[in-house]
Amino acid sequence: MKIxxxxxxxxxxxxxxxxxxxxxxxxxxxxxxxxxxxxxxxxDTRRKWKEKEINVPPMIIFSITNKCNLSxxxxxxxxxxxxxxxxxxxxxxxxxxxxxxxxxxxxxIAGGEPFTRPDLxxxxxxxxxxxxxxxxxxxxxxxxxxxxxxxxxxxxPIISLEGDCANTNARRxxxxxxxxxxxxxxxxxxxxxxxxxxxxxxxxKVTDPNFVQTLIKKGSSVLFFVEYVPFxxxxxxxxxxxxxxxxxxxAIDKMRKNFxxxxxxxxxxxxxxxxxxxxxxxxxxxxxxxxxxPCPFSPYSDVSLKDTSLKEALSSPLLEKIRSMSExxxxxxGGCALFTNRETVEEIIEGN
Length: 352
Description:
Helix content: 40-55%
Largest sheet: 9 strands, mixed
Distance between the termini: 32 Å
């Protein structure tokens, strides 16, 4: 079985597993069934494109804005010093419309801080076929916004934190954890999750069963573990080494056995698919200005969606070259194979 088809099947199994988990949460069960149906429709559409020899990834990561109301220590997005205007509402809707037609059924919405865009909910409403996981620092979620979030069957806020109150405030700023708690109280009885950036400093804390149990008791249905990538010079000592990465993997395996929640590891889960899933093999990244990039940690592009369709962009020389190298782009110390091998990616750009 080809890796792309294996990924499609595993994603569908993941969502079927999610429905089973929600059997104990009747208020969310209909929403989970709705999401599963849309994921199946997307899978069927991608298979039809495959018959036309067009490989469509199941997922996009869309950084819809460069704006953020926080200045987190070591933030990769701030370190990239992005330039260019954010896409207009109509441009984002056009791109998502193309994604829907291709069968892309999962969009991870990032930034900056996505909720700095007042049009975000309006955009998401137009595409019920796509599940939107919105990665947010949660500090802009007030009562009015929480009500709107709860109405969207196809939207799941993923709240970023670094561990406990001290860990989170140390990286994100004084009072951020307290605002996070306020947002959680407003999102009660809703579908949401957490995202943890894993470093040497917080590895033991965030993999402690008691910590995980605390997040589940708060109502979390999904938990992302994202390994820290040292975009900021001088922070290399925060990244996990091989032994620590193995420890993280083993801890997540235990969580999947012991807790009634969903756990996703990035890039750790890529290992079962033979290496890096970026560049359209499993996902790609769209920047706030419309550049198509391999992934958020590899901000290189040879095509813009202001000039090219998403379908055509999937076959860009840069993405095709990186896909052909996926077997050699194994995870290495540094949290991301493409970041670790960025000089190779730069050479590909220069050679085009």
